[in-house]
Write a structure and sequence with these properties.
Strand content: 5-15%
Number of strands: 7
Largest sheet: 5 strands, mixed
Order of helices and strands: HHEEHEEEHHHEEH
Length: 207
């Protein structure tokens, strides 16, 4: 038997490693990607679990909801309503300074698939014993795939967080659409740009 027959196929190795990635690990990876791409254009509140997690003040605030609160769920809309209406035990006074982003369900599924692949590539890259069994060209391919996957993170997370909820006289939902490939603004900067355009349109209609 040739030694090449004992060398694992990289595609098979990746698929096998993906099957070992736990859902909780994927969830944690998505949270880390979200935090890394949240930005500072607005005050960020990452994956709040109750209205008491977000203070009631005049600062512009962005609540990034966890995948448990995706856009197509009635539970998610009710939870966001509670965020707008309450601040802990009391009523929220400055509702119009709070904005909420929910993940798009179809893009969330794609994000989970992406996170699973990214985690698998990362684990293989640091698995010394496995790397020793791979051919040199496979190692080069592995490094390229991991680098490319890491570069995708901003686009993947912006694609998922598409639905923004705002509050004035009631809750309004807007779809931010798919981001432009290569632009890579942070989540908070993308929301800030949306709010600015919305205000410009409002002023334009009043003139």
């Amino acid at each position: 038997m040739c030694s090449s027959d004992l060398e694992p196929n990289l595609n098979r190795v990746i698929v096998d490693r993906e099957e070992t990635i736990l859902d909780d690990t994927i969830q944690n990876e998505i949270k880390e990607i979200t935090q890394a791409n949240s930005g500072r254009a607005l005050k960020i509140y990452l994956w709040p679990q109750s209205s008491s997690d977000i203070p009631d003040n005049k600062n512009l605030k962005l609540a990034l909801l966890s995948p448990s609160f995706s856009y197509d769920s009635d539970k998610s809309k009710l939870f966001v309503e509670k965020l707008f209406e309450n601040a802990g035990e009391g009523f929220r006074v400055y509702r119009n300074t709070l904005f909420a982003l929910l993940m798009d369900d179809s893009q969330l599924a794609a994000l989970r698939t992406y996170a699973r692949r990214l985690l698998a590539l990362t684990e293989i890259q640091i698995d010394i014993s496995l790397r020793k069994r791979l051919r040199e060209e496979s190692l080069v391919d592995l490094k390229k795939r991991l680098t490319d996957a890491e570069k995708e993170a901003p686009f993947r997370i912006l694609s998922a967080y598409r639905h923004i909820g705002t509050q004035k006289t009631g809750t309004t939902w807007n779809d931010l659409g798919m981001p432009t490939i290569g632009s890579d603004p942070s989540l908070s900067e993308r929301v800030r740009q949306f709010l600015r355009r919305s205000e410009e349109r409002r002023v334009g209609k009043e003139c």
